[in-house]
Give the backbone structure.
Amino acid sequence: MLAVLSASVVLNAVDRGLLLLLFLLLVAGAALGLVVVVLRALLRQATDLRTDIEAVI
């Protein structure tokens, strides 16, 4: 649905500000997705390290 909306906005773009806003929202969503992926990987790694430390203690 987002692709259809994006195509509609691009093809009928009278106001370039709306096109810029759509692009910025896409970039912000991608950045947020990457941050979530990185934080999940760091949390998994920290959990594994904590388990290893508890085994040593």
